[in-house]
Amino acid sequence: MKKLFALLLLFSNIFYLSAQERAYGDGEYFKFRVHYGFVTAGYATLKVKDSRINGKEVFHVRGFGQTIGVSKWFFKVEDDYQSYIDKDRDIPYRFIRKIDEGGYTKDIQIDFNHTTNIATVNDKKHDEITVFSFPEDTQDMISAFYYLRNQLDTENIKTGDVIEMNMFFDKENYKFRLKFLGKEVLDTNFGRVRTLIFRPYVQSGRVFKEKESLTVWISDDKNKIPLLVKADLAVGSLKATLTEFKGLQHSFKIIAE
Is the overall model pTM greater than 0.90, yes or no? Predict the structure, then answer.
């Protein structure tokens, strides 16, 4: 169950809305149940609220995930991720990662200067500050989710298309790649919903079985809600299912029976 919330965020980087309308706003809230089959391992939430940073109007997004019950006894996870995102440009000014995963801890704050393309990484655990350059249009793990909700054109996307974007995470620049698999009507907690299916490409090894072991289903509407995430991990198959939401900017479309 290691990296549960981090994975959930990564899976969700796949959304679109036209430039005339915003897919999200102040007060949006998602809650996900993370589970192995019928066994609930934990929960994860994403919350959006209006804020300011360095005199700029931003969305402050906080993601929090933790294990519960028996799962917490075997492997405790408490992950806190935050991003401060420019309201007009959908780029991050600050990213916070504070995690405790079975005793493995990190407490990092990254400040992005998009004028100089320099990221200042404050590793609070080790009292160390380092700087890194990053390419244009770089996102952090959370801001990428919201950037793509507004920018990725799923209206004209074709099965097999691959989307790339620049990301900076854990003191490193890398290319995030996402493949569109097609469409499907999915049975959810809220009813039958038309969805788009994507597969992120991830690094194989310690956590994942292989490079293409993740699949995510999102609502095929203006909200582009992540409804289901499936990950084939080295220790079994893990799912994250949306159980609650509020504060949507658009109506949520359910297929009438």
Answer: no
